[in-house]
Every structure is written in C-alpha cells, then in structure tokens.
Amino acid sequence: MQHKKPITLVACGIFADELQAVLAEKGPALEVVWLQAALHTDLGQLQSELDAVLAAVTKRRRRPCVLYGSSCLPAADELFQRHGARGFAACNCIEALVGREERRRYEAEGCFLMTPGWVRSWPAMMASLGWDDVDVRTNLGRYARILVFDAGVHPLTDEEVVAFFDLTGLFVETVELGLDHFEALITRLLDQEGS
Is 99 in contact with 10 (CB distance < 8 Å)? Predict the structure, then answer.
C-alpha cells in the first residue's frame, strides 16, 4: 500500500533486536528513530522526548508510527493524536511480543516479564531510578520469578542470566518464542491508512 507520506518509526530501544529482524524481512529499510530504553522510568522525560521527536518527524512531512504503549506512557494516545502519529495495538513491549492474553496469564502467575533487551537495559534503568541492588530486590520481591521472552534474535548468555539472578534473587526462566505476533503487529501498524 502506498502512503502519501514516508513512514518514520519511533521506537523504544528495548525493541532494537526484534524490530531490526522484522524490518530486515520486509525489504526496504524504514527510517527508525530509537529512544533510550530507560526513558519509561521518568514519564515526564519520556513524554518530553517523544513530543520533540514526533514534532521533528511531522515537520519533515513524514508519518510517525510509534512503538510505545499506554503502560509505558499513560498520556500516549493524546500525545500521538496531537502529532498525527499512530501507535501499535499493545500496552507495552511484552504484550507486543506475546499478546494480551499470554501477558495477562503470566502476570497472574506472579511473573515479572522481560525481554533480553530489558535485561541488558536494566543498569541504565537502575541509574535512572537511583536504585542500588537492595532497591532492586525490594521492588521485585513481590514476584515469584522472572520470565524472559526470547525471540531468538539475540539471546541472553548464561553469564547474563546468572548475573541477573544474582542481582534480583529471583529465578530467571527463558521462554522461547518466534516473531510472528510482533511481526503481525508491526505490519498492521505500517499498513494503516496515513495522511
């Protein structure tokens, strides 16, 4: 489908590996603007950065499509609407990869849900929140275990899994999944009618 304006994807760095794999299969490269993964730890900063990026994208007469959900930024819909941006049909990165029902099921089991990108971004998130090791264990102590959804693009090493267990004190289980759900979500986002 031809769009009147070229598309720019504005994406959280959490998705870097998965999105690059999906876009590589789609052929011609789209413009992607990556934002730092830890931005969601400061909603004001995330909103400010998204606002600035979306303004710049629309000023260049490109159609912005955004890979952030309402769980990342509660005011996302209003912000996207103001800039004529399209968001994806998921509340966060986990739901984008596994779907709403699976996310809810695992959360109901007391699991803290992550991706390899999340695990690798954890030090930046800790720094942004001002957390030390004790804060991590205190804040994650309500969870039964950590599930890391791995699409097979850039899996965690055994050393990364052990280091994250040492940090959190929680069992870290890897759940392998494909990119089918994520790819379908991205395809729907890109195929939406644009102006």
Answer: no
Q: What is the mean pLDDT of residues 167-184?
A: 94
Using alpha carbons, select from 176, 150, 149, 148 the residue that is nearest to residue 162.
148
DSSP string, 53-75: HHHHHHHTT-EEEEE--TTT-TT
Query: 111 in helix, strand or coil?
Result: strand
Amino acid at 110: G
Q: Per-residue b/e over 61-77, b at no fewer than 16 CB within 10 Å?
A: ebbbbbbbbeebbeebe
For 100-136, what is each residue's pLDDT tens digit? 999 999 999 999 999 999 999 999 999 999 999 999 9
Domain annotation for the chain: domains and CATH numbers: 7-92+179-191 (3.40.50.510), 95-176 (no CATH)
The single-letter code of the amino acid at 45 is Q
